[in-house]
Fold each of these.
Amino acid sequence: MGEITAPLVRFDGVSKRFGTLTAIDRLSLDIGHGEFFALLGPSGCGKTTLLRMLAGFEAPSEGRILLSGEDVSTLPPHRRPVNMMFQSYALFPHLDVAKNVGFGLRQEKIGRREIAERVEAMLALVRLQGYGRRRVDQLSGGQKQRVALARALIKRPSVLLLDEPLAALDKKLRAETQFELMELQRKLGTSFVIVTHDQDEAMTVADRIAVMDHGRVAQVGKPAEVYERPASRWVADFIGEVTLLEGRFSAPGVMQTMIGQLRVSDPSVALGATVWLGLRPEKIDIGSERPADDINAVAGTLHEVGYRGDMSIFKVRLGDRSLMKVTVANTAHGRRGFAAGDVVWLSWPADAGVVLTQ
Amino acid sequence: MSARARLKRSGGGRLVVLIPYLWLIAFFLVPFIIVAKISLSQTAMALPPYTPVLDLAGGWTGLKDFAARLTVDAYALIGSDELYLNSYLKSLEVAGVSTALLLLIGYPFAYGIARAPGGLQPLLVMLVVLPFWTSFLIRVYAWINILQRDGLLNDVLMALHVVNAPVAWLSSDTAIYIGVVYSYLPFMVLPLYATLEKIDGSLLEAAADLGCPRWKAFWRVTLPLSWPGVAAGALLCFIPITGEFVIPDLLGGSNSLMIGQTLWTEFFSNRDWPVASAIAVTLLALLLIPILIYERLQKRAIGEVS
């Protein structure tokens, strides 16, 4: 390789303030070519502001935004080679589907015939052949979503920005559309940057996720990294379910907690400092008797049972009155017949948890 | 059953639906029939000053006799004398030019209000409506003061050395246009503001995102989406301006009269009620044309939506 290629998108020390409110706080982030990148965070974390700055609707208060190595911080939206799919879709109500999709091409010096051909090809790509003459208010929610997608893709942007693109769809359609988006992204090779508050969505579609909190990036990584090796208690808690146990290492591999001495295989932790053990509910085993071979085992009373069809959720009250959440896949009929009030044993191997220092 | 259907079934609901119809029958249809009837009469030195007079005491034969004596003489007169045609044309010209001017002034006005910060908008709308708190007549009289030979406008223009001698503003078409545009501006601004204010800001962002500079986004998104407001405002101004009497009478000259003035003259100076009525009926027929066009356009718009 030798030569250093610039990332497709680089946020370089970017801040954005609205009056006294700091929406983005000295944030730096790189997004690569052909990546499906997710900005994930609770509402108000600044993810939408970040996307809007990339589109050009907001100017950074400080810092630079680079696109393929070129500073675009002050470039107006109509001169940026990025396109956005809006959360509300923002389809033009006075134009039909074909005119909506072709809108971006009409701004350039492109002949009518070529526009018509590219619109037709785009509609085929999003499986809306024959819908060109329809008015947008005659479309269903899912069809509108696909028109918005086609309209944003037709100019072949270097980055496609998606602002909560699936939020308006019902659950089943949303799940299908997630896979369609991934397929589309692979087919086109365009970088997609998606903003979402839905962690399942981000985990499903994205190659990498930036978890955001209060205008900063709490962690960037592949979905599995963010889930399995969260950088902080906040990330661990935000992504998926977790039980956090506070304690300190008294010896290598031995952690003292409120529920007793636990075996934890994490070699890199300093002795004596306060740390937290994060345990994902699916990594814990539940049984009615103390397991013979497991290293970590605690007894508790079953507090609540939730049946979700594919799995069951158990909330277990431990000796120190804290609750530990356990999920078990319902792989066989009629198994795991526990009821609230039962005494149960929870167990997990030494490498099941993750040690968090902050 | 929907709430609406339930309301329709109940007696109270039916009454609510009836009220506008009763209103229109009592205050529009019945007076119109009376005026139309008078327009088919002939002048007479009597009280009322026309004949025949409908007398229901005469029974069926009386009614037949009445119908036989109706004539279209008044309409024939309107058609034959150029005075009336010129009045109609003058009215349409004043209404057309004024409506165009109102659009040119009112659109940026309404656009500015719609783009103002949200908290400021109610105040600005209030300011547009504020002149209504003073009597219309007094405001037009005020314009006489401003436009007359030694009035405010000439004082200012001469102090600024724009003109050296006073300009005769009053009693001219210019004065009529100033008065009309001033008086009708709220009727243009309010419907325009109502449509412009409803346009979703993300549509303009989408246009910008797809390559439109601001002016182009206005041209291709804002303007087409504001057509309903343009049509409503234009109609709301054009129709009453066509029949306007007070403004041309107070500010305009005497060389060419608008139809409202001609009607007034026929009624009060010439005491020719049939001709005055015929003028009114013809004017109404004339004004139905733009209303029908508007209705048609709206129906098509609704048809396309559903």
Amino acid sequence: MEIFYENKQLVTPGDLLAEGDYAAGNNAYKAGNKVYASRLGLVNYEEKRVSVVALNAFYVPTVGDLVIGKVTEVNINSWTVDINAPYAALLQASDVLNRFKPQRDDLSRIFDVGDLILAKIVTYDRTRDPLLTVREPGLGKVSRGQIVKITPTKIPRVIGKKGSMINMLKKEAGCKIVVGQNGLVLVDGANPEDERLAITAIHKIEEEAHTSGLTDRITEMLKREREATK
Amino acid sequence: MSRPIRKLIDENGIRTDGRKVDELRPVKITIGVLSNADGSAYIEQGKNKILAAVYGPREVHPRHLALPDRALLRCRYHMAPFSVEERKSPAPSRRETELSKVIREALEPTIFLEQYPRTSIDLFIEVLQADGGTRCAGTTVASLALADAGIPMRDLVVACASGKVDGQVVLDLNDIEDKEGEADVPIAFAPNLNAITLLQMDGLLTDEEFEKALDLALEGCRRIHALQKETLKAKYVTAKEEVEEE
Amino acid sequence: MSSIMVSRIRQRQIAQLIASGKRLDERGLTDYREIKIESGVIGKAEGSALAYIGKTEVLAGVKIETGEPFTDRPNEGALTVNAEFVPLASPEFEAGPPGEESIELARVVDRGIRESKAIELEKLCVIPGKKVFVVFVDVYVLNHDGNLIDTASLASLAALLNTKMFNYELVDEEVKILPGFTQLPVVNYPVSITFAEINGKLVMDPGLDEEEVMDARLTVTFEKSGRLCAMQKSGRGTFTKEQIVEAVKMGQQKAEEIRKKVI
């Protein structure tokens, strides 16, 4: 049993991380009895598992995730939704309308091409595109606010430990903020200046995600900016 | 003899561009240079200037090309009309078609294509200025563009050519050496897997000379690989600090 | 069956057999299928030959025309090799412009001939800097049962050896044809040897079934004194350095054997 890096060291694809009785976790793979990194990131050694916290990865749909998507096609009995993933997602008419009749119901009146929606991923497997639902409270068409797109791997940092970062953001920027697991964040404020401030904060979090004391620094920045505009 | 007779290596073992026989041209790499592409990288190696970009994994268009069990890797190696001495027509040449294929096959073994069935990963390599060894520099920079796009890979791929010039086995041929030398051996290599993923040869070599050239090219690959890793990591210099997760 | 897709059972069979050093058709790992060459089959071409390796059949035709030399080779004749994967050769071939496989094949065959300096191109100069003879080698695949590259190389070489150029004289810088013919000056005999890598083993002259299951392919071309003049790895798999060195050694021996079938 051997490891070749220190915990949290930066590794690149193909780097040999460990040899022996280890399982390969996220962003790592095992060949023979060697574990290698498959993405650029920080290596994480656990007792029997080696994984890599990827610094840059696209969003892969996961059942249960809240996502923000954009309608790209209105079909006969469904909508095609771009969820910033390798696969387009599908929202079926039956999810929205209880008794759906294709001849009578014009789906574009509910969601049209270009509309943004808040949805949850209901099913996803390798053979089909992900299926969405908007049935839960809070889901559905986004009618106001702005969207920020960041690297999906930074989303956990925007939320923070037990929501510490996002709760602070909502308070200090005075905006409603909804975080999609797929890297899209909805910012809805009382005025465009507040929204812009929140967006700046989110981009800053994305850039400095790996530094310590980030929550405090962002809090200070927001307080400062808000004071300045008063 | 119809070929111009010129000494490509002088009595002191110095080549036309001042290098020794086992010296690489200076290499400079930048990662994440294009904002629209999912991943991108740029390389300068000697006078070569090559840009690589990746889009994907994304839905395949046209749909019927989608593979049920893996992503489709498509690669386009293309030279800009102004990249060479005599203007090159923008239409894809037979050489570009062949190189697009060998470069794709050089990268394919390292990508976890099976993780993204029914998608395509589209790789574009544009040679903005060419000076010999573009398929190698193109492969090296394409692998970095894939890493920049966050596409999971078994290994990085690095490429380098060696050859024979004025009777000597030589590393990293420039354009003159490529055109007037006796042999050219481009290779691509996945260093951690110890796997050769691209190999071509043209010219005349005995089997000993070939083995020497192969070893020299592999050595060149190792040197460039170190630079690949360094450049990738440099993009995230602050990453030594804590990462907090929910 | 019109599809040549190999079933999974067969794929496993082939891979298992090869792991134990055997092949489906009972050949050894370094045995070629039967090679047959018929020269001079197309009278209207300046040269031609039909080559068979097992059931793979490739026809090569040589036409010679006059043309302008390349700017960097003003006193030499020109060579161009083209390959066509004729649709009747396989249910997988479609009519249309050459695909990447046929372009790759043509360029590998071209390299073998060009780098070995098989044709004395300086002897094909008519008016230095202005007019030269252009040798067109057209490779026509008629039946695909694996290993098109080696079959095409053999057909091309045999066709070149069979090629006769018309005699001529220059009258006011125009080529005037005279009676009689001269043999195309061919002085080297490149032979390509192609390996498939299956389950880590190197297998020479892969048949179609074997090509469907192979991980990667390696072609090594040797000229008459045993030097390498071309190499091409293709396919999704990889080779170790040791495998390549071994392939070169085995290929060199085999090329000598096979060359005897052509000259």
Amino acid sequence: MPAPNHNSTERVIPFPAVVQEGLTKAKKNDMPGAPGFFFLIMGELVIFYSFFLAFTLERIKHPEVYAAGQAALNPYTGLGLTLVLLASSWFVVRAVEATRAGKIEQIKKNLHVALALGIMFAVAKAVGFFTEIAAGHHIMADSFWGGYWMTTGMHFIHVLVGIGVMICCLYRLKNIKADPTYFTFIQTSGIYWHMVDLLWVVIFPMFFLLGGTS
Amino acid sequence: MSKQEGLSATVVWVALMALTIISFLAFETAAGKIATTIAILIGVVKAKAIFMYFMETKGSNNRYRWALELWALATVVTILVGYWSTVVI
């Protein structure tokens, strides 16, 4: 682990020994974050894989329905949402690294930006949902929209949970000096947010770019 | 944060943003079987980059790391087999 930079004008907190043990990255048979958290991550990924599989099987049966549904989606919106979420994820990485270095101001700044980008994603997606409903593309419209709403709706719920978790990270930051579990908490929260990002980078090409049958 | 760690996360992030734009441009300029296949493959490469570098699982030999690899493989195979079965039939 790098030594804190004492030449910097920024406030650097010395972590207690108990936290130092948790500051490592994945090594050999260990995984980062809270013990067992990757069990939850894999559970989530398997659930989303079942959506991808159901979507794919339905698409094989009704390719023309899926081509029409995809044509109704705005790929520029999908691109914008992807870039916003990737940027948010990067700021979470920076916040975790700042925690590792003990730089409180950097943690705060990066978490605020990540949170703002996460909220931007959620608002844009919510506006997109309302636009789709107004155009008659509701969950019961056809199998494409059923799959779209199920997958992106579940993803949206995960985004909201991730935003809540980031707010918790900011709230707990106030007591970081007396909180030996803060690093594990922010690292685990980061892993959750990256899972949200990871799912979206698959959802984006699948729904917005998969195209027709030609 | 060491300069090297910070740089590697930034390089991965820039690569992710660039790959997103490349896959979108491929779709916009040449929407077809190959462009769509490239977009799906890029999506899974990005997913792998996220769990290796952002989730910090790179270097781990833990079973969950391999489960993530398996998930990425299963996802890309499922989507591509589904896609190609509709464009070929």
